[in-house]
Amino acid sequence: MDAMDLGRAATHGAITAAPTISTLTLLSGRCQTLAKDLQTAVGKLAELNPILTGRAKKSEGKVWVEPGVHHALFRIAECPKECPLIAPLDFKSKLQFLEGLEKHLVDPLTAIQTLHIGSQVFLVELMTFEEPFVCFVVHLSHLVGDAKTLYDLVGQLNALLAHQEVKPLQWDSPARLSLELVPLCKADRERISRWGTLGWLAQKICGPARKSRVSLLSKSGIEKQKLELLSSESKFLSSNDVITAALSRAIKNSKVMNIAVNLRGRKCEENCAGNFWHNVPMAHQAAQDPNAVRALLPKLQYYKDGEVPWTPFAAGRYSFITNWTAFTQHLEVEGLKVECHLVHGNFLRQNPTNVAVVFHASRDALALSHNVPDKNLDATGLLGALLS
User: Fold this and answer.
1) Is 36 in the same domain as 123?
2) Interatomic CA distance for residues 119 and 2, integer angstroms
């Protein structure tokens, strides 16, 4: 496989500065051959997806990946010397336990660092405890792919471990080279890129230190609000509509809410790997109404062409929300049970502007991770009604 242009999404906007996407999964049970089986499966995964062995580089204003450079894609992580008993912990405590493990794992880099030093773009880690528990960790540089890509790779690992047929991923979709992946007029694209970069740098240098915070969401609370907030103009409200509105009401000192939309099935095939997301900018106040969010997303546009405001981006007064619940995949190993799943806090801490991620912390539990400073967040009101 020759060097490949990673496409428009990897060269436009925030991807070139984005933190690595990393997830941690705590599983209970014991499989004596897990480390060996997982290492073998990761090797086969790299054969199926040579891009995972690559080194990212920037040339002529484009981001490329050169496969065949890095081959050590599996690592045994050392268990911390002082480790609490895991079995007695409740669900929330197990999530907190996973958070505490982050400092014992490889520190994920940002895209800027990955490009600068040519480090690997994919890594799997496994930590085994004295108790019958293991922690499975996967890292994917955002330059190479988005969260959907990461979870699709986990799905391929599951198939390899179970000796099943692996569904291939399409890395070379022509859609990755199209500006339709950024469905904004040229003036708005340039305005967001130019002023958003300035605001990002301003927040990075002068803004508050970002921390990662994880909260569980109440499914019953979400369902209740979907019914109560539904207007006569909307046929239905999704959980994402309500959560987006709740965050828009809760976050202070932000003027634009950028809502991440998966473009697979719209602009490309469902099995496309890479970055196929678009952030739809919406006036923060308008996004406080879930019915407005519901009306916006199919159109992929809130502002009229040429009317995206530049001042919120220049000041770094904008927010992002991304929802991964539709495609979250956990590691599946016979004899092991998924206890909980977590987005690595580095994805939130390394972002100097407001970012929120919704994901499945287990098969039945929804969670919200965000980096909004306490002084800029009002967790009462609608958001408070959604928290578990």
Assistant:
1) yes
2) 18
- CB-neighbour burial class of residue 188 (10 A; exposed 0-12, middle 13-18, buried 19+): buried
Look at phi and psi of residue 264 and say left if phi exceeds 0, alpha if psi is from -120 to 50, else beta. Answer: beta
The string of pLDDT tens digits covering residues 211-250 is 999 999 999 999 999 999 999 888 999 999 999 999 999 9
DSSP codes, 179-215 = GGGS-S-HHHHHHHHHHHHHHHHHHHHHSPPP--EEE
- Rounded to a whole number of angstroms, the distance between the first and last alpha carbons of the chain is 47
Domain containing 144 equals 4-161
Rounded to whole angstroms, the Cα distance separating 56 from 113 reads 10
Q: Which residues contact 32 (CB under 8 A, 6 or more apart)?
A: none
3-state secondary structure (DSSP) of residue 244 = helix
Q: Are residues 192 and 140 in the same domain?
A: no
pTM of the model: 0.94
Instruction: Find the CATH number of the domain harbouring 292.
Output: 3.30.559
